[in-house]
Amino acid sequence: MARKVTHCGDLGTGLAAKIANNLLLGITMLGLSEATLLGRTLGVKPQVLADIINNSTGRCWSSEINHPDPQVKCGTASPPAHRNYEGGFVTKLAHKDLGLAVKAAEGAHVPLELGKRCEEVFRPLAQGQEWGNRDFSGVFQALSDFLVSGEKAQAVL
């Protein structure tokens, strides 16, 4: 699946690296989704905000390759947001890895404040029929739906 194979050390360290990487991926996707939703709500055009992020300190894989806002073009890439969040890294699997990271952190006594909250946000999406089998970038649309419906996202998520 990867372009590069990296020896990580003793048995199990490769899995630890995968879990740590996917923890960061979940956090960055959630952060990008929230930042994008905030910017849109405050009147910034989605593509303008995406271009600013991708040319400054917020740039990350999610913002460049798998942007969660369907209104944002990602160069020549066609992210799942352009296909109603079909394909990609499904939310159930993203949540599974977030849960593994939280559990590993608890066992190792490592504080994981953002990771725990991120797992909590993705949990109802992963368990639901609507988002569980769609790309995890759909968290943006789920948050947008809560905003439009007038519900408080904190109470629901």
TrEMBL record:
Coiled coil: none annotated. It is an enzyme of class 1 (oxidoreductase). It catalyses: 3-hydroxy-2-methylpropanoate + NAD(+) = 2-methyl-3-oxopropanoate + NADH + H(+). The keyword Oxidoreductase applies. The keyword Oxidoreductase applies. It comes from the Eukaryota. One of its GO terms (biological process) is L-valine catabolic process. Its EC number is 1.1.1.31. Pathway: Amino-acid degradation; L-valine degradation. Gene3D superfamilies: N-(1-d-carboxylethyl)-l-norvaline Dehydrogenase, domain 2. Keywords: Branched-chain amino acid catabolism, NAD, Oxidoreductase. GO terms for molecular function: 3-hydroxyisobutyrate dehydrogenase activity; NAD binding. One of its GO terms (cellular component) is mitochondrion. Residues 12-142 form the 3-hydroxyisobutyrate dehydrogenase-like NAD-binding domain. Pfam families: NAD_binding_11. Belongs to the HIBADH-related family. 3-hydroxyisobutyrate dehydrogenase subfamily. This is 3-hydroxyisobutyrate dehydrogenase. It comes from Cladophialophora chaetospira.
